[in-house]
Every structure is written in structure tokens, then in C-alpha cells.
Amino acid sequence: MTRPGLASTFRPFDALEPATLHRRLAEWNHRRLNPALPHDDWERELRADAEMRLLEGAAIERAREAAQPWLADMPTEPADFVAWFEALQGRGPGENDPLFPWLAETATLEDMRWFLLQEVAGEAGFDDLVAMAQVKMPIRPKLELARNYWDEMGRGREGGMHGPMLDRLAQALDLRPAIERTVWPSLALGNTLVAFSTTRRYAYHALGALGAVELTAPWRAAHVAEGLKRLGIGAERKYFALHATLDVEHSKAWNEEILRPLAAERPDCLRALAEGAVMRLQAGAKCFEAYRATLWGPDAALRRAS
Questions:
Q1: Do residues 168 and 120 lie in contact, with contact meaning Cβ atoms separated by under 8 Å?
Q2: Is residue 27 a part of any domain in this protein?
Q3: Are 187 and 195 in contact (CB under 8 A)?
Q4: Residue 15 domain-assigned (yes or no)
């Protein structure tokens, strides 16, 4: 019996439109990361995986090229590197995007629902990404990744788990995420983070990218939480309210316990850490641009009226 989605669909990377590429990668990631059982079609599945890994690798390498201008002044001394990394907050790609003050102050409930629908659909699951990224890492970074994961898991309490908090918000707003209704930059962001955390040649990219999330999320989360409060969303906004404050401490610990020791002990990984951070921020910037194009574009009034 052939499992769904395993027909050979490989095409050269440059022949694929970005939307087609990232929808295909998102569908593949959904299939390959879900727990499964043994089946007779495993050989065909592995061949399909190999084709998709080629497409994934080509996409990541293209994004690495786009990140290089941001790395021109990257220092290599540990203290200077951490300071350079921290300076991405507020100055990196996508930082201070005007979308977020607008969400806080102006967006309608339907605007907010559409925005959150895109965010939920592109969400890769920070807890799982951290768990996969920590494999075989040095002791000090590994311990901090474990502490971060424990926080993501609500310190052992189901009600405090971060992922289900977002799920509860999605349920309260009747969001029904689907790949085909998600703008491709949102899918690309999730695909990039999954590629980093599941592919060991990008293991240090994963640490840079996830560190950039912790560094830059609080400003955006605070604006989304403010907008949700203005629109009358109560306890369900906790996911964003929590990340507006908790990620500040997470970022400090990430930089001191992961980035600084790696910069001192593994200077050969500095460029990968920096590339991962910049690539994550560039992917976010493309999302915000796509969101603004829909929410502020000429069809916005028609979409609100529909």
C-alpha cells in the first residue's frame, strides 16, 4: 500500500516557484515529523525523502547567500561576538516592523485572526526544535537548552506548556490553519527552522536561529498581546503575554550559556551561529512584508467585508 504524498515530484530547485516549493516542504515536514508505524512503503518513502532533502538543502543554501551582507562586520572574539549578536535586536532584518504597532492599536478582530492564522500555520514548535537541536551539543549549551525546553514544557505542568497555550488561542478564535491558505513566507520560516534542527550540518545554525527568536520575540509578542487585550481576548492571550516577558530572560541565558561558551571553545562555528540568526530574521521580515501586503493592500477592505 502506498502512503499518501509519496509519488515522485522532484523538480530542479530553480524550476519551482517559492510558494510551490515551501508548500511542498511544509507538507513533507508534516509527514516526516509525525510519529508513524512500520509500513511496507518505507523504501519509496526514503527515496521521496532524499528528493525533498535536495530541495530543502538548495533552499537553505540560497538563503545563506542572502544572509552574507549582514555578516560583513561579524567579530570573532567571544565578548564582541555576543555583543554583535545582541545588537541584532532592534537593528536586524524585520526589526521594528510597523505591522506590530498597527496590530496593537488599529487592527480589527478579523485582521488579528488572519494574522494569527498565518502565525499558527507556520509555527514549527519551539519545544521540539530545541529538543532536536540539543543532540550531541557540548555540556554547557546542552544544559541551557534543557532548561529552555523545561520552561517550554511548563516545567512539567500541562497547563503551563507553551504549545498548547497557542492551541487554546487558536481554538478560542476559531482558527483553522491549512497549508494551502498560508502565505508562503510563513511556511518558509517554519521550513527553515525545521531544516536547521533536523539536519546536523546546520546544527549551529539552529542555535543561532533559535537564539534570535528569544532575542527579538518580546517586542513583537508584547504588541500582539496588547492588540488582543484591546479586542477583548482574555486568558487566551497568555501565550503572547508570557513571551513578552519570559523570553527576555531566556535570551540572556541563551547568549551567556550557549553563544558565549561556543564562541570561546568552537570559534569555527561562529559564522554558522550568525548565519542562522540572520536567516531567521530575514525569513521573519519576508513574513511581515507579506502580512502587510494582505492586511494593508488594496484588497483589504473587500476581505474585511467578506
A1: no
A2: no
A3: no
A4: no
Q: Kindly report the CATH number assigned to the domain that includes residue 187.
A: 1.20.910.10
Angle at 170 between CA 169 and CA 171, to 5 degrees: 90
Q: Which residues of 206-222 are buried (b: 16+ CB within 10 A; e: fewer)?
A: bbbbbbbbbbbbbbbbb
**Alpha-carbon span 111 to 89, nearest angstrom:** 26
**What is the model's pTM?**
0.93
d(CA 184, CA 291): 11
How far apart (Å, rounded) are the C-alpha atoms in residues 290 and 269?
A: 32
**Residue 55 lies inside a defined structural domain of this protein:** no
Cα 262 to Cα 254: distance, rounded to the nearest angstrom: 11
- For cell 516592523, the residue is 97
Query: What pLDDT tens digit does each residue of the chain (306 aa) get?
Result: 344 444 444 556 677 899 999 999 999 999 999 999 999 999 999 999 999 999 999 999 999 999 999 999 999 999 999 999 999 999 999 999 999 999 999 999 999 999 999 999 988 899 999 999 999 999 999 999 999 999 999 999 999 999 999 999 999 999 999 999 999 999 999 999 999 999 999 999 999 999 999 999 999 999 999 999 999 999 999 999 999 999 999 999 999 999 999 999 999 999 999 999 999 999 999 999 999 999 998 867 545 555
196 sits in which H/E element: helix 184-198
Interhelix angle 270-295/203-230, rounded to 10 degrees, is 30
Q: Which residues are paired to 153 by β-bridges?
A: 161
161 three-state secondary structure: strand
Distances (CA, A) of 275 to 82, 88, 100, 272, 279: 14, 12, 25, 5, 6
Q: Rounded CA gap, 283 and 193, in Å?
A: 10
- Domain of 285, in residue numbers: 65-305
Is residue 136 domain-resident? Answer: yes
Question: For the chain, how many structural domains are there in total?
Answer: 1
